[in-house]
Every structure is written in structure tokens, then in C-alpha cells.
Amino acid sequence: MGCVSNLVSSVTKKIIKPYSPTPTSLRCHKLSYLDQIIGSIFMPVALFYPKYSDRKPSIDISEHLEKSLSKVLTHYYPFAGKLNNNVSVDCNDSGVEFYTTKIDCPMSQIINNPYADKEDVVFPKGVPCSSSYEGSPAVIQLSHFDCGGIAISTCLTHKIGDAYTMGNFLKDWATITRDPSSKILPSPQFNGASFFPPSKDLSNLPIVVPESEECSSRNFVFSASKLAALKARVISQSQVQNPTNTEIVSSFIYQRVMAINKRTLGVTRPSLLVQGASLRPPLPVNTMGNIGSFFSVLTTEEKEMDLPRVVGKLRKAKEEYRQKYKHAKTNEYLPITTGLYRDADEYFTNNCYDIYRFTSVTNFPFYDVDFGWGKPERYSPSSYGPVRNMFCLLGNKGRDGVEVISYMKEQDMLALERDEELLEFSSPST
């Protein structure tokens, strides 16, 4: 590829602290039950911005971002603190790490070769998807390419927030960068523990995501026309009307990996499609932290593998999931959620079942993050995956297609790349 980590030069590091001290009443941020059961990995997102004619010189960009980062941290104060085991965050305003680097290649060389050594280039080294990094709970990197383009990457610990929290953090940071006098409304609230009280028995928490395993990543793009063709097939053969892009793509990928396994093994392996889902609503949209759960689809027989049937079962599971929480009282959220994990524990811990995890950020505002020099040309997570058989659905810049980043064992990935039906409706990103 030509642009690898040894072409990263002029690395500088600063510690950025909140502009205003965190009030004494907020100094101890209690982790919620959902925070406790999430792994301590760092979630990575990179935003790529082409050269902008009205942009200030590079040194001013760094200073501008540092000042606005300091201001936004007064609202996202737990990320400038220190984690206390799996119990709380000491919001002591110790700050976040901010790296500035020079990349000796054009940005197009990265964008046109996504996931090829990118984690060594625009992300802080050793941070993406790490569960052992001992630095600040948020780590930022600003990368300057020799073409004048820049990348802004953010790694936030999953212990304090989810992808929705990440999206709001970036949006609010950009808002303050464009206009330092802007008010962040509604103000983010780190009060997840009031909805999901933490557990005192830290030794008996469920395993939400297993330990990270070495896996390969590939990305596949579903264009608007291919999505329309898949939707037409589903609508004509099932009762599901207006299937969403997430329902279609998650079901289709799940169906294809099961079909590949059937061809390889000669039998249908019992499989579980696990779809992550937000709980905003019914919880307020400005509730930060890990505010979500999951619903799932179990497949045990070959006749259950056709696409319309999978989509139908996924839609039913989603509607049942929503109904569980829709009319629940605040003190009922935790029992409902622990019940979901208890019911699924048989599948998560039993090697007889193949688990395929899906998460979707197709509706998140990453392509709207404008720091004052236009919207990003591209956004993406790192090519490092937290666990095998995980699939992340991203939106595209035109808002009409879906890109899927797949994390699988190398031999499984090679089989997926050769699947003719997958390639009929998607194309590998180049």
C-alpha cells in the first residue's frame, strides 16, 4: 500500500483538561449495570476531511481543536477522569490524551485502501479495540496528510459510553469548534446508573462479548439499487412491509454465513443472530453511557435459512423487544435486561451454537460532523475487531447505501469473499 506506520512522523502529545472544573457533586460517576457488563475496549472512529481552501494553517487547527475539546469535556467530564475498577469513574479532570501527527502520504491513499494498515496511521498506536490500554478514557489523534487533508480519530472507552455516546460527543465537539459560544442542548446526562443500578457482585456478571480473538476484517458495500432488490424479494415472499436497511443487511449476511457453513460442514449448525439495539427511547435521547440491549433470532434447521423468513423473525424479535421496554417503569428496566441475558446465556456459553453479532450505526450523524471545514469525506472504525463473527453496519455519505465491516477468522472470511450470492448484491470496498 505504501502508507504504513513508519511514514508517521512528528508525533506530539498533549493532555487536554476540561475548561471548567467538574462540580463536586459529579466527581464520582457510578457505572451502571450495563457499563459493568461491557468489556473495557476502546471504541475507535476516524473522520477524514479533504483539503479545505478556507482552512487555517495546520498549527491553528491543532490549537483550535484543543480549545474546543477542552470546552466539550466540561459536558463529557467522565472521559477526562480515571476508571476505578469496574465500579465508578473518579471525575478528577486529569484530562485526555491528544496526539498530533504528520502522515507522509496523501489522504486518498488511505481512503482508497480502507482497513489496510490504517489503524497504524490515523489511530493512536495500540489503542483501538484494546482492553489493556491504561491511558486516559478518551484518546484523540489529529493527523495531517501531505496533500492538506486531515483525519480526526477518537477512541473512547466502552466502559463509559456506547457508539451513540461517541456520535454525540463528536457532534457536540464540532459544534463548539465552529462556534465557541454555542450551547450544548440538550446537555448530555451521565445518569445511566439511575435506570440500571450497578451490581455489587462483580464476580457474577454475564459475559456480553468474549475475549478478543485475532481475526481478519473486510468490508462490503450494498448500493441503493442492490438494497432495493433484496427488499423486493423479502416483501414479495413475506408479511414484512418496509423492511429497514439494517433488517435486510443483517439478515442477508447472517443467511450467507450460515449457507457457507452448511456447504463446508454438510450440516446446519444452530446459529444465533444477535442484533444490538438502543434504548433511546424510551430513555431520554441525551442519556449517555451504555444504554442498549439486544434481540436475537435462533436458527436450527435449514428451512429457516431463507432470507424472507430470517427478516420476518428479526422484525418480530425487534417488535417484542420494543414492547418489553415501551410500557415498563424505570425500576423494571434492569430486570427486563437481565432476563434477556439470562435467557440467551445458554447460547452464549454453549459451543454448540454459532453466535453472529450485529451492530448498526447507519443512522448516526458521523457524516454530519462539521468542525468548520466541511463534512467528512469518509468515516470508519479501525480494522481491528473486538471479536470474531461481528458485523458493523455503517451508512454511506449519500445516505442511500450500507457498508458492512466484517470481522471473522481468516478461513471463514476467505469463504465469505467467494460467496457468489453475497457478491451478487454487494461489492468489496476498494
UniProtKB/TrEMBL annotation:
GO terms for molecular function: acyltransferase activity. It comes from the Eukaryota. The keyword Transferase applies. It holds the Pfam family Transferase. The keyword Electron transport does not apply. Keywords: Acyltransferase, Transferase. InterPro entries: CAT-like_dom_sf. Belongs to the plant acyltransferase family. This is Acylsugar acyltransferase. It comes from Petunia axillaris.
